[in-house]
Write a structure and sequence with these properties.
Elements (H helix, E strand, L loop, with lengths): L13 H8 L2 H16 L14 H10 L9
Helix pairs in contact: 1-2, 2-3
């Protein structure tokens, strides 16, 4: 994958992420919870994340199936 597709919030794409979470609402809530955990010191579950921000790291973890968003 080239760098243009991997920088900022364009990687992973919203379509790829929604397919993992089943809805945009669940994606937002799950990502926010995971980003909060990372900000409190939780271990990052992926090697060499593209993003430096917690929210971007959380999205990458979800995309790589390191975090699974479940029904509540």
């Amino acid at each position: 994958m080239n760098q243009q597709n991997r920088d900022g919030m364009r990687y992973p794409s919203i379509d790829q992420l929604v397919s993992k979470a089943k809805s945009k609402y669940r994606l937002v809530v799950g990502t926010a919870k995971r980003a909060r955990d990372i900000s409190k010191g939780a271990k990052v579950l992926i090697d060499n994340p593209n993003s430096k921000k917690n929210i971007g790291i959380a999205l990458e973890e979800i995309y790589q199936d390191k975090i699974i968003i479940q029904d509540e």
